[in-house]
Amino acid sequence: MKPQDVPVRDQFGRLLEDRGVWRQATTLEAAGELTARWLEGGSSYQPGHFAAGFDDETRPIAASLAELNRNGLFTRESQPGLRSETAAQREYVTGFCSADLAAELLALSTRTELVVVAHAPGESSNAAIPVTTAGTEVTTVLGSSENPVDDDQIRDWANETNDALALLLADSWYLEILDPVWGRTGVLLPAVLSALTGRG
User: Fold this and answer.
1) Domain housing 13
2) Which pTM does this prediction carry?
3) How many helices (H) and strands (E) would you count in the chain?
4) Residue ranges of the chain with pLDDT lower than 50?
5) Rg (CA), the chain
């Protein structure tokens, strides 16, 4: 095989060079930093996101998400609040963190109207809290743990990152934090950042 025949991108358009950096990320802090870089446009690879970049709706909250990632919450999913004639969204963010930060974030539910669903390491749970509707249909729900708890899930994370990070995620807390007010943006992410940095 000639050097020019070596693939530069994977089947999803993600740069393989950017993927290589994830092979060395073995802490939540490292994963958070790499995710922040992706959100800032400095990388085209994000584990579990099968595209080279994020959705357009993420653009207005990308900088705030990068801050969360640099302060201990390795984010997995998010969406801004939105309300139109045909659709509605509750703003939310999900991610992995340490037990100490999970306690700080869970406390948001005691002093604000924000809802925090915390999944302990090894916990497999399923619930259905609607966060996106299209017309009368619920299209996105929260309430299910994303912790890699079985061998297949751990292997999937290891394939996207590395063995050490996959095992760390299996031992981390997974949180889902949502604003219960449909369409509202601007309350959730600052509150989460304040909790992460001890200002909340």
Assistant:
1) 8-195
2) 0.91
3) 8, 8
4) none
5) 17
Q: Is residue 180 part of a domain?
A: yes
- pLDDT score recorded for residue 2: 59
Query: How many domains are contained in the chain?
Result: 1
d(CA 133, CA 102) in angstroms, rounded, equals 28
Q: Whole-angstrom Cα distance, residue 166 to residue 48?
A: 12
Sequence-distant (6+) residues with CB within 8 A of 57 are 79, 80, 82
Could you tell me if residue 3 is inside a domain?
no
**pLDDT value for 3:** 56
The span from the CA of 145 to the CA of 128, in Å, is 11
Question: What letter does residue 125 receive in the DSSP assignment?
Answer: -
pLDDT of residue 93: 98
Helices (H), the chain: 16-22, 28-39, 62-69, 99-106, 108-111, 151-160, 163-170, 188-197
